[in-house]
Design brief:
mainly alpha, 67% helix, globular, monoatomic cation transmembrane transporter activity, ion transport, transmembrane, transport
Amino acid sequence: MAGLREAREAFGEWVDRVALESPARLTLGAFALTILLFTGLLSLPFATTTGHRAPFIDALFTSTSAVCVTGLVTVDTGTFWSPWGLAIIGLAIKVGGLGIMTLASLAGLAVSRRLGLTQRILAAGESRASGLGDLASLLRTVIIVSTSVELLIAAFLIPRFLTLDYGLAKSFGYSLFYGVSAFNNAGFTPDPVGLYPYAGDAWILVPIGLGVFIGGLGYPVYLNLIRQWRNPRRWSLHTKLTLVTVTVLAFISAAFLAVFEWTNPDTLGDHSSGKTIGNIFFQSINQRSGGFASFDIGLAREQTWLLEDVLMFVGGGSGSTAGGIRVTTLAVLVLAAWAEARGRRDIEAFGKRIGTEVLRVAVSITLMGLFVVIVTTGIFMWQTDIALDRALYEVVSAYATCGLSTGITGSLDSDAKMTLIITMYLGRVGSLTLASALMLNRQRRVIRYPSERPIIG
């Protein structure tokens, strides 16, 4: 027993050391192992409705999509997977969502501990002061917050499913599945036809939409709001930037979606004005990362696809279950351009100055995302001969872990599916890994080269 206890303590110390010294390595390894574990579970015969083993590529694709909380599927979730399979997918979404928030918070903790004294004090205002303590308390807080919201969503959905004659067991199961999928921005639906039949049902769309919105804000924002909800002036800069950018993007996307789809009879054109407005706002929330759709995206206009390409690439809040380059990255880039246009030396927002090192990280994450999307789209088109508009949409959805699709995923061959699997994995761990690696790789140099400004533009 003593030897087992010593081994367990040694393993715990090793995990703590890796988590704080190399969060990037921990992120890559943890997600890869988790994906393989759930792939094995989904490959078992009882996970499918037919009782036969699912093809390995489909089990791997579904596992990756669930753990990376994406929502892209190669088989119909509601008809292909048995209740046990749906439970496994729901658990994979839950584990993946918890892992994302916890690892993102650990990366912030590692960064703040590796900086100098002055930089640590500044970083603490955005990370450690937001509740990033030891691993146990961090994980406990994340579990409490996420589970509470998921159960609240399920509690609102259960009565509605009961009125639709789903039965007690199915109503509870579907409601809990939707709660987990919504908060974690996963976009998986247990209904064989998805949310299309509920396009005008506010009782279902409102809880799911709010769950997606809350889940996309991020753990640092939750804790900051919980502690300082009475005093908005003391909200952190990260919280303010996230809330403002998310709100602005929601209204902008709703406005453009109304312009593009209001008269499209295949999507929103045949609905009443009230139903159309409700669907527009529901979709505007899901366009960035939620992945739920109340109408067939494949029948939408190409302008809508382009709009959603941009919104999916931006994604949600840092430290959240949403994907993309994150809204704070976009906010920093816009603020930098605004400062340059006004001839300001510093990037400023809400009475705070944003350091140039933050801008460098934002530029690096954006360029990495663009590089992955462009290269992967080229490879995907070469593998499938699919047109650029649909190929780009599918790749951006995979990289941004959004899950919206024009309907081509199920018809792909194994090579194209593997390309999307790798893209989902890179999209989930890429920005977090790159951001933490860049922040932890700061070097102090005594000698600096003389400054000279090249001509830009």
